[in-house]
Amino acid sequence: MKYKLLVLDVDGTLLNEAKEITKRTLSTLRKAQQMGLRIVLASGRPTYGLMPLAKALELGNYGGFILSYNGCQIVDAQNGRILFERRINPEMIPYIEKKARKKGFALFTYHDDTVLTDTPNNEHILSEARLNNLRVIEEVEFSTAIDFAPCKCMLVSDDEEALMDLEKYWKKRLDGTLDAFRSEPYFLEVVPYSIDKANTLGVLLEYLNLKRDEVIAIGDGVCDVTMIQQAGMGIAMGHSLDSVKACADYVTVSNEEDGVAVAVEKMILEEVRATQIPIEQLNAQARYALMGNLGIQYTYATEERVEATMPVDQRTRQPFGILHGGATLALAETVAGLGSMIISQPDEIVVGMQVSGNHISSAHEGDTVRAVATIVHKGRSSHVWNVDVFTSTNKLVSSIRVVNSVMKKR
User: Fold this and answer.
1) What residues contact 270, with CB distance under 8 A and at least 6 apart?
2) Per-residue DSSP letters for 145-169?
3) Is 267 a residue whose pLDDT tops 80?
């Protein structure tokens, strides 16, 4: 694929207004990852608050990352290892607290699974804590209690004009020391100097040895503009401000209309479909073969990946109503066999040599399972495929290894 990395803002982009990942978006992003795309969640949220989303998207299984605190941290989703981190010098906390109190602003910061604040009943702070599943701890003497270097501090007020004035003042006063910007009308964020999503994304690209032309970034807010501009393909959500849209290469629909899914389908999935194998013809040819008798239908086929579905019914179930392991292995051999035939030369034939499966959970009658075959080894005389079989709710049923022998036609 042309694009190797997909960078997603979270609130207003990945999530709809109910703060959920829709089924369409979840399915599209999982499919894109199965094709080799890696996903980065880039958000102002704390790392702890992004972990459930990373788990739902299975980022840890596909080499994904979390870019949290608007760029203060990069975390490997597979093992939780921090790859990059910048924090505020604790000596600056008393100054920030003094300015907040003088202006009558509430103040908070994050620490692990908690929010530490001098105003625990503030509605915006409580909402932020609920959003990220954090506990709220009151610290009246804020700067005394913050005996660590926080990733960022947040000043809170409903007086938008007062926050704007302090933002302008700090951009001059703190230049070279800290950065300040409003992420919401009621939030003024204070972060280490020169930290934003784009700069930290640059660190990740260097770490992964990727070029900006291999990156897609999608966002909706002013904080996403530099990230959108840095990516080879920068995409703005349909509900973004005009100033954000003007910086993008492409504008998708809103987060209420599955804007992320629409963009990924167009920019990534369609790129692969352009070289797609004639699925309908293959299914028709196999109508009276074993796969046709078992109800197996190819749904997707490229040189790197093949997918097919199979119903769990009287043809494929055991007497007590769950999917038969033998039918599962037949499904795996079917998709891996097609995959090997696609990548073989015209003067070669493919013969199944070995299949071994681990059956992890069950699928019940009435369901339809989906097999996803990906190439593990493409040698001159053999191909090795990994085939994962999922239920319709994406529960892993079996993980199967198929070895095909490649021989010259006589």
Assistant:
1) none
2) H--S--S-EEEE-S-HHHHHHHHHH
3) yes
Residue 275 pLDDT > 90: no
Question: What are the backbone dihedrals phi and psi of residue 118, each rounded to the nearest 5 degrees, phi first?
Answer: -90, -5
Side chain identity, residue 8: L
3-class secondary structure, 330? helix
Alpha helices in 160-196 (DSSP H): 160-173
Q: Residue 248 belongs to what H/E stretch?
A: none
Of 185, 209, 215, nearest to 197 by C-alpha is 215
Instruction: For the chain, report the end-to-end CA distance as a whole number of angstroms.
Output: 35
Instruction: Say yes or no to pLDDT of 367 above 90.
Output: yes
> Is-above-0.85 flag for pTM?
no
Helix axes 93-103, 160-173, angle to 10 degrees: 150
In DSSP notation, 56-119 reads HTTGGGTT-EEEETTTTEEEETTT--EEEE----GGGHHHHHHHHHHHT-EEEEEETTEEEES-
The full length of the chain comes to 410
d(CA 180, CA 190): 5
Q: Supply 180's token pair.
A: 């300040």
CA dihedral sign of residues 346, 347, 352, 357: negative
CA distance 246 to 223: 14
Q: Is the Cβ–Cβ distance between 103 and 157 less than 8 Å?
A: yes
Beta strand pairing call for 233-236 and 5-8:
unpaired
Active site residues: 333
Distance CA 31, CA 38 (A): 11
- Alpha helix ranges (H) inside 184-265: 197-208, 225-230, 242-245, 259-264
Q: Contact, 43 vs 9, CB < 8 A?
A: yes
Task: Provide the edge-to-edge strand list for the sheet that holds 297-301.
Answer: 297-301, 305-311, 368-378, 382-390, 396-408, 348-359
CA distances, 81 to each of 60, 132, 155, 220, 234 (Å): 11, 20, 29, 28, 28
Residue range 60-88, pLDDT digits in tens: 988 999 999 999 999 999 999 999 999 99
Whether the CB-CB separation of 365 and 319 falls below 8 Å is answered with no
